[in-house]
Amino acid sequence: MQAFLSSSIPATSYSRSSFLPQPPQAPAKLAILPLSGPRAAAVARRTEAGRPAGRCVAASASSSPAATTAATAEVPAAMKAWAYDAYGDASVLKLDEAAAVPAVGEGQVLVKVAAAALNPVDAKRRAGKFQATDSPLPTVPGYDVAGVVVKVGGGVKGLKEGDEVYGMISEKPLEGPKQSGSLAEYTAVEEKLLALKPKGLDFAQAAGLPLAILTANEGLERTGLAAGKSVLVLGGAGGVGSLAIQLAKQVYGASKVGATASTKKIELLKSLGADVAIDYTKENFEELPDKYDVVFDAVGQGDKAVKVVKEGGSVVVLTGAVTPPGFRFVVSSNGSTLEKLNPYLESGKVKPLIDPTGPFPFSQVVEAFSYLETGRATGKVVIFPVP
């Protein structure tokens, strides 16, 4: 995705003159689990210093989990939320300090958001690329969430108040996605779309997973990747690509995993499990002699991808033009799939990858979107902490 925004775009704060519905007045009491511990302290230091510096590492499943302590608090009638009432670039986003906390429907839970993450689809949606199937404006964006269940709706059987969860909050991200997303203090989500947060991961790490890991998993599954087959991942250092490498190796048993990235990210590819790391600034992957049973194109090079697939193989294309035998799909949210993948995350066999420029604090959502849209992120762009 080409850069068309500046990372220095300032965030604009709005108050009760906001364009989102005004909330009712009566709050309800419940328990909230606030964040503390090493990661919270680190984020506080980054926030004080401005834009944080960092190095590109895969977040370990054993690295400092967010410590949580029960505290009595109230679910307020109003919440802070980032929203837009017109399509456009990142400047349409406004901080609404008096948005209504979403109602909890049948089969849903209310989640106190601890962390959220951005995806390219968030930017495309905000730009109006999916207006025909989008929910009505104004919109609180955000698909990925990690947080704590603070209220349970009717028909909910598996989750309870106090559960730490993560997931993608809209079942079909392009077909009527939720009007009130995860870039807010609270979001209402169907129980079936959530899973318990993997043990050993903190909220920021968990928030960076749902849409990306579901996309990587469903894409590999649809290609028929199986033990003993080979796969080439185009864009192996991105949010989806980094997980596709790991899932191909650890979950699907691929015998050979190749991946592309720029020079400074080649060692990262190897650390994620790539057997063949291709520097696309020095080599054209489509001109190399190796052929693969599966090509996973996360960057929009479908015309080149089909040149390196074996006869009878599969090419999955996430963005850009599709050249036969390539195909495209739109991921669906599914909490049960996340539950199945949790053991790989808890064991450290599959690790979340957070861009070292972040996490971005909640006050810098505009800057986070601008950075995402440069196309230079390594892993996921995460928003943490959420107040």
TrEMBL record:
Residues 88-383 form the Enoyl reductase (ER) domain. One of its GO terms (molecular function) is 2-alkenal reductase (NADPH) activity. SMART domains: PKS_ER (SM00829). Residues 1-20 are annotated as: Disordered. It holds the Pfam family ADH_N. GO terms for biological process: response to cold. Residues 1-19 have a biased composition (Polar residues). GO terms for cellular component: stromule. It comes from the Eukaryota. The keyword Membrane does not apply. Keywords: NAD, Oxidoreductase. CDD domains: MDR_like_2 (cd05289). InterPro entries: ADH-like_N, AOR-like, ER, GroES-like_sf, NAD(P)-bd_dom_sf, Quin_OxRdtase/zeta-crystal_CS. Belongs to the zinc-containing alcohol dehydrogenase family. Quinone oxidoreductase subfamily. This is Enoyl reductase (ER) domain-containing protein. It comes from Panicum hallii var. hallii.
